[in-house]
Write a structure and sequence with these properties.
By secondary structure, the protein is α/β, with parallel strands linked by helices. Helix content is about 25%, strand content about 25%. The protein binds adenosine-5'-triphosphate and magnesium ion.
């Protein structure tokens, strides 16, 4: 089941949606956040972090690509944006050793399309788009696993 056209009017709506989504998540999940600059990927990751009750603020890291937030369910929040400029971004991703934490944590990756799918046999893709009126439209696209069934509980 693909869910399309979820409309999020404000950044608080996006964070609240992330908290709802977190209820479906469990350790070893991989979630890819896609969408243009300023779409609201980090805002959604903040909501997910809140829903998972992780410690520390989920932010756009300036110097680190990935950060582990400990909590009830740990969250690895990665932002691969700057890896796009590297000659071999996939190698850079592998250097992060995301696999080391992936089993015990929910891993949420911004700008990870084409870079991190190999980390898991199954993942949830969340596409965020920004409309002219500044609201956001979200599509949820399951890739294998039991994501379809889980999305029905959203
Ligand atoms: N409905 C909305 N959902 C999310 N963000 C919104 C919304 N409306 C306005 N905003 C604003 O848009 C910005 C989204 O920023 P955010 O850092 O979450 O985007 P991003 O997709 O992570 O960007 P980047 O590609 O730079 O990482 C914030 O300034 C937020 O306040
Ligand atoms: Mg961001």
């Amino acid at each position: 089941m693909i869910i399309t056209g979820i409309r999020l009017a404000t950044v608080d709506d996006t964070r609240a949606f992330g908290r709802r989504l977190a209820a479906l998540l469990r350790p070893s999940d991989l979630v890819l956040l896609t969408g243009p600059l300023g779409a609201g990927k980090t805002a959604l990751a903040q909501g997910i972090g809140a829903g998972l009750k992780v410690r520390g603020d989920v932010t756009s890291p300036t110097f680190v690509i990935a950060r582990l937030h400990r909590g009830e369910v740990p969250l690895v929040h990665a932002d691969a944006y700057r890896l796009g400029a590297k000659p071999d971004p996939r190698a850079e991703i592998d250097d992060l050793d995301l696999d080391a934490t992936a089993e015990d944590a929910v891993t949420v990756v911004e700008w990870g399309e084409g870079l991190v799918e190999h980390l898991s046999e199954t993942y949830l893709q969340i596409r965020i788009d920004r409309l002219d009126d500044d609201t956001r439209i979200v599509d949820l696209v399951p890739h294998a696993g039991d994501w379809s069934a889980r999305l029905e509980r959203l």
